[in-house]
Amino acid sequence: MKDTSVVRVNIDPSRFMGLFKFDTSKSLMVGVERECFIVDADRNIVPRAPHILVSGENIIFGYELSACQIESRIGPCDIGNLSDDLNKVDGLLADRFSKYNDCAMSNAGIIRPSYIEVGQEDMPLDVYPDPSGRYQELVKTMPRHVLQAACRVIGTHIHIGMPDHTVALKVYNQVIGRCDWLCSRGNGSFGERLDIYRIVAPDCDPRPYQDWGEFYREACIRGFDEDPRKCWTLIRISKHGTIEFRMFGATSSIKRIVGWAKLCRDFCLDAMG
């Protein structure tokens, strides 16, 4: 646990800033991280991600904390190509499941992806065998009710590329004013998903920062100064050099995802001035 009893002031944020990798050539390009559950023929959520994912391959498909989830990764791409790219990755994921179901391991039962936003309370809490050991260390001190909450919710994250640190902070400070409205647009579970998410991240509401120095001081207090991924706010500046919108629920609708992405991109473009 990070000691936050003494808050440092007037500290140089340059090392922290170096953790964020911006690329001007990808400014306003779109990325999508799309999570799904794995369910069996009876629609029960099952921990089969280790059987679907290929070891060492994490470019298009990746794992999550729960062994019952898979993440598809799209982009960065132009907004005009997003629908085609989403459809292509959907097809690749379907192939993965088809191959699994056709092989000997399918004796365990046919499985498929599911985009329900909230898993049942008694779903399996198996943790994915993360080869780095990060998840295994994380759950050692995680209360069971927090692990249950983390496993039960899935969503869709939209990334909008930023050219540099200055523009990213300016855009972030402006778009967080849209957070509540975007939460309502991305809600597919009558608010249940975000209520459960707040068990995992009670401080998930984004706040503005005057400059990167203030952002760094807040990161030191909240424990994400070494790893920006530990900032769990619903809108954040990601280490990939993007503004990341994390409030949207899971959905099987590509049209809906493209609509969310267009909204987020338009808000960022307006904020750039």
What does this structure look like?
The structure is a single chain. This protein is of the alpha+beta class. It has a single domain (14-272), classed as Creatine Kinase, Chain A, domain 2. The protein is built from 10 helices and 7 strands. The protein has helices at 14-17, 49-52, 82-102, 134-140, 144-152, 165-175, 179-185, 192-200, 212-222, 254-272, and strands at residues 30-40, 61-63, 69-77, 111-114, 155-161, 235-237, 242-249. Strands 1, 2, 3, 4, 5, 6 and 7 form a 7-stranded antiparallel beta sheet that branches. Strand 2 and strand 3 (69-77) form a beta hairpin. Helix 3 packs antiparallel against helix 10, helix 5 (144-152) crosses helix 8 and helix 6 (165-175) packs across helix 10. The protein is globular and about 55 Å long. The model is unreliable at 1-9 (pLDDT under 50).
User: How can the largest sheet be summarized?
Assistant: 7 strands, antiparallel
Give start-end ranges of low-pLDDT stretches. 1-9
As for the CATH topology, it is: Creatine Kinase, Chain A, domain 2
Q: How many β strands by DSSP?
A: 7
Provide the structure class.
alpha+beta
Mean pLDDT: 93
The helicity comes to 25-40%
- The percentage of residues in β strands lies in 15-25%
Order of helices and strands: HEHEEHEHHEHHHHEEH
Rg: 19 Å
Number of individual domains: 1
What is the architecture at the second tier of CATH?
2-Layer Sandwich
Principal-axis shape equals globular
Output the number of helix runs.
Answer: 10
CATH class term: Alpha Beta
Distance between the termini: 41 Å
